C-alpha cells in the first residue's frame, strides 16, 4: 500500500522527535533517510506543497568520487586521491580543505549506505567528464552517480512530487534520460532513415509505455534524472516510515540550555511546537529571497533563475538570529548557467537552462550586443554564465545564440526541439527570431549587419579549419564531449553556419544554485562568527557554504556534497544525543 507523504500538522501523532529536517530536495530527503537509518525518529518539513525542491528540475547527478559503484564498474584505482588533488587545484583556498576532505573521504561510505536502502537503485557514469578538464587529475568519468529511472506508480505521493520543467519533457510530461535524448533527436529529425530505426523502436517503446499509463495517473509516471532521485528517496523514506509535512514553515527555533530543542511550525492557520534534538536546514539556499538577492545578486533578476520557489531564505533569518553566518566568496555567491526565457500559454515564462544540448554543437555561435564573439561557447555552464556578466559594460546580457537551418534541424535550439519541432510556435511568441540571411538577422537583434557578417565569416573559417584561435573552443576533453561525436569535421564542437534561414534566441545569465551559505564545521554543524557551534543545528546542500567555494569543477557538485553532508550530519546528531543521554 502506497501512503501519501503529506500529513496535516493537526494529525501529527507525536509532539517530540529526534531530528527535524527542513527541505525536501536531495539534501533534505537524504538527511532524513540517513537519520532514520540511524534509528532516529524523523520529521520532514517542506514549505511548499510539492516535494523535490530544485533537485526535481535537475539531472540529479551526484559528484562523489571513489564509490563502490565506480570500483566495481572498472574505475582506475586511486581515483579518490586523484580527485583530492584535482579539487586542490580547481578550488584551492576558496573553501576549507578539511571540509573537502570530509566530503571526499565520507562520500563512498555515504553512497554505500544509500544503496542499501529499499528502492535506491544507483548507477555510475563511466563517461561524464569533469568540467575543468584542463587541470591535472581531472577525470573522464566514474565520479558522477545518478539514480536509475523509476516507475512513479511505485512512488508514494507521486502527485506531490515537483515535476520536471515542461520545456524538458515531451508528449505531455514524458521525462527522458540523457541517453534517450539522442534517440528521440534522431527520430525527430529523420524518422524514416533506416539507420535510425533502432532509435525509432526505442522511442516507440518509451512512448507506448507512457501512453498506456498516462490515463490512469494525474501525471506522467516515468521519472528520470532529478525526479528519479527524488522518487527513489521517497520509496526509501516510506519504507522507514518518515512523515512529511507539506505547506509548512518553521516560525521559530526553540533553544534550551544553549542548544536546539525544537521548532514552532505553522501550516495554514495551525501552529504547533514540536520538540527535537537536532534540526537540519536543507531549504535550497537563498536564491528566492528578494532581500538577499538585493544584497548578493543585485544585477540578476529573480525571473532569470530556474530555482524552485521554496528557497526563500526564511529559515536562514531564524538561523542568523542564533548566530549562524554566511561565509565569504571570491567571485560569485551563486552558480550560473545561460538561460533563455520561454513564453508559456498562461502568460508566465519558463526558464530554460542551456547546459549542453545546443550551444557547443557544430553550427552554433554566441555573440554579444555588438555582434561579436566574446566567449568560448563550449565552456561549462557556470563559467559561461560568469563570462556573460563579466563582459565589457554589460554588453553580454543578453547575448544571442545563432544557428542555421541545418543545425537547428539536427540539434534544436533551446525550447525548439530537434527536427524543428515547435519552431513555428516559438516564432509566433517571439522566443525565436528567423531571417533569410545574416544581414537580415542582424538588425532584428539590434546589431550592425556588417559586424555580424564579419563575425560569422571569421567563425566559419575557424570551423572549416577545426581550430578556434580566438577563444579555444573544443580544446579540452569536457568541451569536446559536448560536441557532436558524429560530426565529420576536425573539431566536434565547430561547424560553420552556411545556409539560411538563420535563427537566434536571447540568452541571459541565470543563477542555478547558491555557492554562499552558512559556515559549518566538518560535521556540518552551523558555526557562529567566533567559531563555536550552534549545538543541534546543521546545514546541508545549498544552505551550507559550498565545499567547492564558488567554483564548479564537475557535474553534480551541489547535490553530491548535499547527500554526503546529510549523511555526516545525521550520524553526528545521533552521536551527540547518544552521548548526552549517557552523561
From TrEMBL:
Residues 18-559 form the FAD-dependent oxidoreductase 2 FAD-binding domain. Its cofactor is FAD. It comes from the Bacteria. InterPro entries: FAD-dep_OxRdtase_2_FAD-bd, FAD-oxidoreductase_2, FAD/NAD-bd_sf, Succ_DH/fumarate_Rdtase_cat_sf. One of its GO terms (biological process) is steroid metabolic process. The keyword Oxidoreductase applies. Coiled coil: none annotated. The keyword Lipid metabolism does not apply. GO terms for molecular function: steroid dehydrogenase activity, acting on the CH-CH group of donors. Keywords: FAD, Flavoprotein, Oxidoreductase. Residues 287-309 are annotated as: Disordered. PANTHER family: 3-OXOSTEROID 1-DEHYDROGENASE (PTHR43400:SF10), FUMARATE REDUCTASE (PTHR43400). This is FAD-binding protein. It comes from Homoserinimonas hongtaonis.
Amino acid at each position: 500500500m502506497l501512503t501519501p507523504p503529506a500529513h496535516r500538522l493537526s494529525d501529527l501523532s507525536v509532539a517530540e522527535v529526534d531530528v527535524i529536517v527542513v527541505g525536501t530536495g536531495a539534501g533534505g530527503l537524504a538527511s532524513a533517510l540517513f537519520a532514520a537509518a540511524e534509528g532516529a525518529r524523523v520529521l520532514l518539513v517542506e514549505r511548499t506543497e510539492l516535494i523535490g525542491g530544485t533537485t526535481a528540475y535537475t539531472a540529479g547527478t551526484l559528484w562523489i568520487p571513489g564509490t563502490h559503484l565506480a570500483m566495481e564498474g572498472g574505475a582506475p584505482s586511486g581515483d579518490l586521491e586523484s580527485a583530492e588533488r584535482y579539487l586542490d587545484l580547481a578550488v584551492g583556498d576558496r573553501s576549507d580543505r578539511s571540509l573537502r576532505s570530509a566530503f571526499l573521504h565520507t562520500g563512498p561510505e555515504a553512497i554505500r549506505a544509500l544503496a542499501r536502502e529499499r528502492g535506491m537503485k544507483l548507477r555510475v557514469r563511466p563517461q561524464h567528464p569533469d568540467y575543468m578538464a584542463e587541470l591535472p587529475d581531472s577525470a573522464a568519468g566514474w565520479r558522477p552517480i545518478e539514480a536509475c529511472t523509476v516507475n512513479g506508480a511505485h512512488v508514494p505521493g507521486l502527485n506531490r512530487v515537483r515535476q520536471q520543467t515542461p520545456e524538458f519533457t515531451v508528449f505531455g510530461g514524458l521525462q527522458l534520460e540523457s541517453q534517450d535524448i539522442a534517440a528521440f533527436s534522431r527520430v525527430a529529425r529523420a524518422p524514416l532513415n533506416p539507420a535510425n530505426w533502432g532509435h525509432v523502436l526505442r522511442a516507440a517503446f518509451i512512448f507506448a509505455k507512457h501512453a498506456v499509463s498516462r490515463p490512469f495517473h494525474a501525471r506522467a509516471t516515468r521519472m528520470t534524472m532529478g525526479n528519479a532521485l527524488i522518487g527513489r528517496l521517497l520509496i526509501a523514506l516510506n519504507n522507514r516510515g518518515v512523515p512529511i509535512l507539506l505547506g509548512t514553515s518553521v516560525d521559530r527555533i526553540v533553544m534550551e540550555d544553549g542548544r536546539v530543542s525544537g521548532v514552532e511550525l505553522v501550516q495554514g492557520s495551525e501552529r504547533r511546537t514540536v520538540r527535537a534534538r537536532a534540526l537540519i536546514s536543507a531549504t535550497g539556499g537563498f536564491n528566492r529571497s528578494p532581500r538577499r538577492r538585493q544584497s548578493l545578486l543585485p544585477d540578476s533578476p529573480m525571473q532569470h533563475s530556474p530555482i524552485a520557489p521554496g528557497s526563500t531564505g526564511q529559515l536562514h533569518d531564524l538561523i542568523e538570529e542564533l548566530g549562524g553566518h554566511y561565509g565569504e566568496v571570491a567571485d560569485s555567491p551563486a552558480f550560473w548557467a545561460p538561460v533563455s526565457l520561454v513564453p508559456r500559454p498562461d502568460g508566465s515564462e519558463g526558464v530554460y537552462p542551456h547546459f549542453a544540448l545546443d550551444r557547443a554543437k557544430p553550427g552554433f555561435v554566441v555573440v554579444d550586443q555588438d555582434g561579436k564573439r566574446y566567449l568560448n561557447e563550449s565552456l561549462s555552464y557556470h563559467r559561461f554564465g560568469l563570462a556573460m556578466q563579466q563582459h565589457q559594460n554589460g554588453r553580454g546580457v543578453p547575448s544571442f545564440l545563432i544557428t542555421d537551418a541545418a543545425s537547428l534541424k539536427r540539434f534544436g535550439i533551446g525550447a525548439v526541439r530537434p527536427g524543428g519541432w515547435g519552431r513555428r510556435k516559438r516564432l509566433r511568441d517571439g522566443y525565436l527570431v528567423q531571417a533569410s540571411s545574416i544581414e537580415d538577422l542582424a538588425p532584428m537583434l539590434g546589431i550592425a549587419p556588417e559586424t555580424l557578417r564579419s563575425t560569422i565569416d571569421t567563425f566559419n573559417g575557424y570551423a572549416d579549419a577545426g581550430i578556434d584561435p580566438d577563444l579555444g573552443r573544443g580544446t579540452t576533453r569536457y568541451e569536446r564531449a559536448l560536441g557532436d561525436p558524429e560530426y565529420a569535421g576536425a573539431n566536434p564542437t565547430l561547424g560553420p553556419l552556411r545556409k539560411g534561414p538563420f535563427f537566434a534566441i536571447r540568452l541571459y545569465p541565470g543563477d542555478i544554485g547558491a555557492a554562499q551559505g552558512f559556515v559549518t564545521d566538518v560535521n556540518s554543524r552551523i558555526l557562529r562568527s567566533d567559531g563555536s557551534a550552534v549545538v543541534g543545528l546543521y546545514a546541508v546542500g545549498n544552505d551550507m557554504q559550498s565545499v567547492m567555494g564558488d567554483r564548479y569543477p564537475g557535474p553534480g557538485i551541489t547535490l553530491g556534497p548535499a547527500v554526503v553532508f546529510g549523511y555526516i550530519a545525521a550520524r553526528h546528531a545521533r552521536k551527540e544525543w547518544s552521548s548526552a543521554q549517557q552523561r
